């Protein structure tokens, strides 16, 4: 059996207008407030090649999620039926890893300004990945 230990360190942190869990949107939208991802200086070179307008997946560790919540309502709206968190984007889940599609609206040094990120202020960022429209889309990376 393989060693299942994991080593994961944040590459940066989110600066967000959302300070408490109840204020954060249940699913990010381009109409939401901007958030700024501050990259750790160690990872500055990893942002090379990013451009304003890029769609990115941001992977965060929602460290203030309620890990005991296993069902939620889509968008947090009472009119929607309860569903298991694996079929929703609720930040509350057994291992609260968030995979969020965002739009890069500004980049300056190690500061990435994005739209559509539903993360709380000071949420750790685990990774950033480019979004491609289809698994069949040819890529040059």
Short recap of the structure:
With about 140 residues, this protein is mainly β. It has strands spanning about 10-15, 35-40, 55-60, 70-75, 80-85, 95-110, 110-115, 125-130.
Describe this structure as you would to a colleague:
The radius of gyration is 16 Å and the shape is globular. The mean pLDDT is 86. It is mainly β and 141 residues long. The chain has a domain at 12-66 and 99-130: YaeB-like (Elongation Factor Tu (Ef-tu), domain 3), CATH 2.40.30. The chain has strands spanning 12-15, 34-39, 55-61, 71-73, 82-84, 97-108, 111-115, 124-130.
Question: Which secondary structure elements does this structure contain, and how are they paired or packed?
Answer:
Layout: E1 12-15, E2 34-39, E3 55-61, E4 71-73, E5 82-84, E6 97-108, E7 111-115, E8 124-130
Antiparallel strand pairs: 1-2, 1-8, 2-7, 3-6, 3-8, 4-5, 6-7
CATH architecture term of the domain at 12-66 and 99-130: Beta Barrel
CATH structural fold name of the domain at 12-66 and 99-130: Elongation Factor Tu (Ef-tu), domain 3
What is the straight-line distance between the termini? 33 Å
The helix-strand sequence is: EEEEEEEE
Strand content: 25-35%
Taking all Cα atoms into account, the compactness measure Rg is: 16 Å
What is the CATH superfamily of the domain at 12-66 and 99-130?
YaeB-like
How many β-strand runs?
8
In the CATH hierarchy, what is the class of the domain at 12-66 and 99-130? Mainly Beta
Q: Name the average pLDDT.
A: 86
Largest sheet: 6 strands, antiparallel, barrel
State the share of residues found in helices, binned by percent: under 10%
How many helices? The count is: 0
Order of the strands making up the biggest sheet: 1-2-7-6-3-8
Structural class: mainly beta
Shape: globular
Low-confidence blocks of residues:
none
